Amino acid sequence: MFYRTGDRARLDKNGFLHYQGRKDHQIKFHGQRIELVEIQQCLLDTSISACVVIKWNDDHLIAYVQSSDINAKQLRQHCQSHLPPHMIPSIFIILEKLPLNVNGKIDRKLLPPPSSYFFHPLQLNYTNNLQLIKPHDEIQIILHIVWCNMFQQQQISIDTNIFTIGGHSLILMQLYHRYQTTFHLGIKSLSITDLFQFPTIIGHAQFIRQAINIEKHFEDCWSPLHLIQAPASFAQERIFLDEKIRFSSKSNNKIYAIPLVFRVLSANTPISITRLHRAFQFVIMKHSILRTALDFSTNGIIIQHSLNVDNMIDDMKPYGFSIIDLHDDKDRGIIKPITEIINHRDLFDLTKGCVIQCHILRQYQLDDNLSFKNDNLLTKDDLILFNIHHSAFDGASISVFLHDFSLAYETDCSLPLDDDAMQYIDYSV
Questions:
Q1: Residue 415 and residue 411: Cα distance in Å, rounded?
Q2: Strand partners, 8
Q3: Number of structural domains, the chain?
Q4: What is the DSSP secondary structure assignment for residue 14, as one 8-state letter?
Q5: Are residues 28 and 53 in the same domain?
Q6: 136-145 in b/e burial notation, b at 16+ Cβ within 10 A?
Q7: For residue 313, what are the CA distances in angstroms to 109, 228, 277, 310, 376?
């Protein structure tokens, strides 16, 4: 008994079968069997006169269309209405006439290569139009960073269709899960179908904004109290008393230090120290817990007090953000200076709200007797060291802190602060 599978194979002299493709145009695309004829038939339901669909580079479906009165946007919208997402072509190439062979059939070998219709992979600005449209709100900025990282580009216009820059269904699935993680969205609040139908940063930002509003609808019972002083939480009391009683010595105040160390891996993308400083101050302004003092009240109760933003930043100028030059001493290494910073007797002072510090450790090369070409830029192997007291920080805080710090740096603190955002003091009372 034989089963006609539609697969073509060649039998060599050793009796081995070599797969040669298929007799029909069924393909396996991203793990799913697809009949290209179904896509072609869907396209033929429009005003086009002929078409052919091929798989290209394993990751893309390319539709060649013969027409003079339809555009790619109209074809994509039609396919989105009639085909599942994984069957929608990445590129629609519209030709005046499809090439034919001597038998009058479409000659696939003479079709123009799809690569010439994709944006060049080295191009820095991906746009649909001549003008690059940059993101203008927080959500669009976050999506722009995600897209640029995914496609390894410096700029992508927010009106760019993801399918025209090499995107496909698997990438959209990755973005969908990335959005859920980044914006803390539930499965029901964001639909992947919407991302396929509006595959631009503008479109995705709009649906994410709606999803966030849905999530916030269930949080309306929570509202900030705008407190600046309240009794300390149980965790704050425990840490404060433990440090006072067991570790009263100044030399032991490092016991609750949480250090975060980051190394500059490449000098290709310059990192501005001035912008780092502004981003550092911005995060302190945004999160009142990073400027919260703990001390005994006149009644002997431990209280938490959120210090004034402007006064706190002015008071921190001498020590909160500092630059240290690491001279090229191989015997000394980097562990010793980091340890010295963490062990410094004046690292923290809970009674004054001094719970966070940032140190820039710069690698000075003494062999060349040269200083930095630009004192405001970090170079390869320079270090950024954050020290944060456990009374204001824990393991769950790291992702929030790094997200806000990175976003503040990327936007140069241009995004407004939300005065109605919930603070730690609101949850603790």
A1: 7
A2: 21
A3: 3
A4: T
A5: yes
A6: eebbbbbbbb
A7: 67, 16, 11, 5, 20
Residue 223 domain flag:
no
Angle between helices 138-151 and 397-411 (to 10 degrees): 90
- Yes or no: say if 24 and 40 are a contact pair by the CB < 8 Å rule: no
CA-CA distance, 152 to 356, in Å (whole number)? 33
Predicted confidence pLDDT, tens digits, the chain (429 residues): 556 666 667 788 888 887 665 555 677 776 677 888 899 999 999 989 999 998 887 778 899 999 988 998 899 889 988 988 778 888 899 999 999 988 888 898 899 988 766 654 334 344 444 578 999 999 999 999 999 988 888 899 998 888 778 787 788 888 998 898 888 887 778 888 888 888 899 999 999 999 888 766 655 556 778 899 999 999 999 999 988 887 765 556 678 999 999 998 877 778 999 999 999 999 999 999 999 999 999 998 999 999 988 887 777 766 688 888 876 555 457 788 888 888 887 888 999 999 999 999 987 654 444 444 567 889 888 999 999 999 999 988 998 999 999 999 999 988 888 887 889 998 887
Tokens 């040669």 sit on residue:
20
Q: Does residue 394 share a domain with residue 304?
A: yes
What is the rounded CA–CA span in Å between residue 137 and residue 355? Answer: 31
| Residue 241 and residue 375 in one domain | yes
| Cα dihedral 275, 281, 285, 288 in deg (nearest 10) | 140
Q: What are the tokens at 396?
A: 């769950």
Q: How many helices and strands, by DSSP H and E, does the chain display?
A: 12, 18
Q: How far apart are CA 391 and CA 376, in angstroms?
A: 32
CATH code, domain carrying 63:
3.30.300.30
CATH of the domain at 325: 3.30.559.10
Task: Please report where in the chains the tokens 């004054």 appear, as a residue.
Answer: 352
Rounded distance, CA 291 to CA 151, Å?
38
Quote the CA–CA distance of 76 and 70 in Å, as a whole number: 11
Domain assignment of residue 28, given as a range: 7-117
Q: Could you identify the residue written with the tokens 């496909």?
A: 168
* Residues 113, 197 within the same domain: no
- CB-CB contact of 179 with 206 (8 Å): no
* Residue 407: both structure tokens together: 């976003």
Rounded CA separation 287/392 (Å): 10
> pTM of this prediction?
0.53
Six-digit token pair at 405? 């710090």
